[in-house]
Write a structure and sequence with these properties.
This protein is mostly helical. It has helices at 14-35, 37-42, 48-83.
């Protein structure tokens, strides 16, 4: 007469996980802003343009570093195979 459902434990979907992380980060920023207000006053000289340049320059720097390390690894590998 009464049917019982078996308990199915599913993991939360990817969208829910991303949303939870995002909300936790916002909560962390708000708590940090409330607790460390005097520290944030010292950072008042930073402008949004500085962050823009940093976020635009970081991928360029990382690409250059990865390219350099790849070339270095290729040179070492080719040098190592020539010795044999």
């Amino acid at each position: 007469m009464f049917s019982t459902r078996t308990e199915v434990k599913r993991e939360p979907c990817r969208r829910c996980q991303i949303l939870r992380v995002y909300l936790a980060m916002i909560l962390g920023v708000v708590v940090f802003g409330v607790l460390a207000h005097d520290l944030l006053d010292k950072l008042a000289g930073l402008t949004p343009a500085m962050f823009g340049w940093a976020f635009a320059g970081l991928p360029v720097f990382l690409f250059g570093f990865k390219f350099w390390s790849h070339k270095k690894r290729q040179r070492l590998k080719s040098h190592h195979t020539k010795k044999r």
